[in-house]
Amino acid sequence: MYEALFLAMQADGRPTADVERALLSAVDFSDNALDLMYVAKYMAQSGMEERAIQLFEEVAISFPSRPEAFIQTLDIADRTNDLDAARWASLGVLRQAWPSSQRNLEDKARRLAIAALHQLEKEGRTAEAKEFRDELNRAMIRDVRVEVHWTGDADVDVLIEEPSGSLCSFRNPRTTAGGVMLGDTASRGDDASIDGYSEVYVCPEGFAGNYRMLLRRVWGEVTAGTVTVDIYTNYKTNRQEHIRQEIPLGEKDAIVIFDLEQGRRVEPVAEHKLATAARTQVAISRAIL
Question: CA distances (Å), 255 to each of 142, 155, 211, 216, 227, in order?
Fold first, then answer.
């Protein structure tokens, strides 16, 4: 209805402020992130980029686990050369981890961030440039980073159970607790480099607690029957810790357990455990049906 009203007012040559107000009326009836982003995207396509960015910022505050608001704002900033939007969106994207299929988003955010830094320095806004550079450095911090490397004609799957009970794997590459499985070179059919194959798990802001990693040989044989596991906690901080282990992997699966003592995620773990249990029960019910 509001879309039709918007088109009618636009065709009638109504003032931009009135047209904008008509579209914003749709926000009053929206109760989820998808509706808000639909209105914001429509406004961005209709030349109301400034108001659209404000809506995307509201979406990011209300639904921090949804990355689409940052993605859409990146496009607006790139198209309009909006410095403030570029700073906000690039930080929002770089704070999160992205699987290899969406690596272009991270590259685009990094490119816009560098351009924003250069613009600030060119305009003599040295203090703002320093502040933004510090924010970018903090955005690249990762509470947990796990790298599994192996050589040989084989494929190895990595599954990680997070303290909230959520499971990050090839089938569930992004969890509500923040974990992301970046990609598996072997399952994608890529040619192995001299370093072999790898699979990487990253949690930018994770819950403190116990992490359990399961390693499973899907097919083939790994060289010497072992895989190399590198575990980083508080990655890219002055508290960074690194553990390297050679894990035997044959017919039986292997389990590696490690702790994150200082996770930056402060939401109640119990709520995530309850939500994870509910989603698991729904999945089981659907499978039975």
Answer: 22, 17, 10, 9, 12
